[in-house]
Write a structure and sequence with these properties.
- The protein has 313 residues and is mainly beta.
- The protein is 8% helix and 44% strand.
- It has three helices and 19 strands.
- Strands 1, 2, 3, 6, 11, 12, 16, 18 and 19 form a nine-stranded mixed beta sheet that branches.
- Strand 1 and strand 2 form a beta hairpin.
Length: 313
């Protein structure tokens, strides 16, 4: 039995580099050819925009790098880039500013001009701690985030991911994050698992913890246990874990919706021969690109790194 769509555990590839997240096999058959924009504005990183062209050949979609497009990027009313992008990527030695508004306009002969805008949100801060927990003789890492300071930004979301930090500063994302917190979104939760420890219980979340905007004012602490990494590099390189990194990301409304809808699209599984497949409609991935596809969004982040504790036994 062949799976048509594979379960997607968000690896935060989007969060790290904002590469194209659309599965072209899951687009509507009447989607017009258009420009795809992929940009994540982060105060910790220089501005970078990736450009692609969606192509349709007999209802079979593909996308290729778009070269030679005219691009205008504005910060508030100031133009920070205006020119022809000879390659498919615009790179500017300029760091986005927190609370600033940005807009982009991309034009290319034969395609509709696309536009988008966003604002870089202020960062969510918190205190953090890390200790060992024990359950039935097994030891787990328990991370506590407390005293959240939520900025008064409109409709932001909070995303939390965790990583094994290995020798040579290599990082590998944890695939599971156990928590009992009632304010964490259930979109990517998996119930009915064995109890990890008494502090976090038996429900884990695939890849990330998301707290939607309406729950942020009620969030006083977030306690979780990161668990399990699936990375073929580890046994081959014999990497030794030296610590744990936790990323707390403040997502603009655009990026919050994009990531949530992308996870929902990728996690749909339809099997050939399943009668329900005749009613299947792919989940639409959110896009704020006028006349096109993709995402142009702002984020801010805080990173907390912990050395592995010494086990007391």
């Amino acid at each position: 039995m062949k799976s048509k769509f594979i379960l997607f555990v968000l690896p935060f590839l989007m969060m790290a580099s904002c590469s194209v997240g659309y599965d072209v096999d899951m687009l509507k058959s009447d989607e017009p050819e258009c420009i795809i924009v992929s940009a994540l504005l982060n105060p910790a990183k220089p501005v970078q925009v990736e450009l692609y062209r969606l192509q349709n050949d007999g209802n079979l979609y593909s996308y290729t790098a778009l070269k030679g497009a005219n691009v205008i990027i504005r910060e508030e009313q100031k133009i920070i880039y205006d020119g022809v992008c000879e390659e498919s990527m615009v790179k500017i030695d300029y760091f986005p500013l927190t609370n600033a508004s940005y807009s982009i306009e991309v034009s290319f002969e034969g395609l509709k001009t696309v536009r988008a805008h966003t604002q870089v949100p202020p960062v969510i801060t918190c205190t953090s701690s890390f200790h060992l927990g024990e359950y039935r003789g097994d030891f787990d890492y328990i991370i506590e985030l407390n005293a959240f300071e939520i900025p008064p930004a409109e409709k932001i979301g909070m995303w939390v991911t965790s990583y094994e930090v290995c020798e040579n500063d290599e990082e590998v994302q944890y695939n599971e994050m156990y928590t009992k917190n009632a304010f964490v979104d259930k979109t990517n939760s998996v119930a009915g698992m064995p109890v990890k420890n008494e502090t976090v219980g038996s429900i884990y979340h695939n890849g990330f913890l998301r707290v939607k905007n309406k729950n942020l004012p009620f969030l006083d602490e977030l306690v979780f246990t990161p668990n399990y990494v699936m990375d073929a590099r580890l046994p081959q390189r014999n990497l030794v874990q030296t610590g744990i990194k936790v990323k707390v990301m403040t997502a603009s409304p655009e990026y919050d919706q994009f990531c949530k809808s992308l996870y929902e699209q990728k996690s749909m599984i339809v099997y050939e021969g399943d009668i329900s497949s005749i009613f299947f409609q792919p989940k639409t991935v959110y896009s704020n690109i006028e006349n096109g596809l993709g995402i142009f969004a702002g984020v801010s982040e805080m990173n907390y790194v912990f050395d592995l504790p010494t086990r007391g036994y």
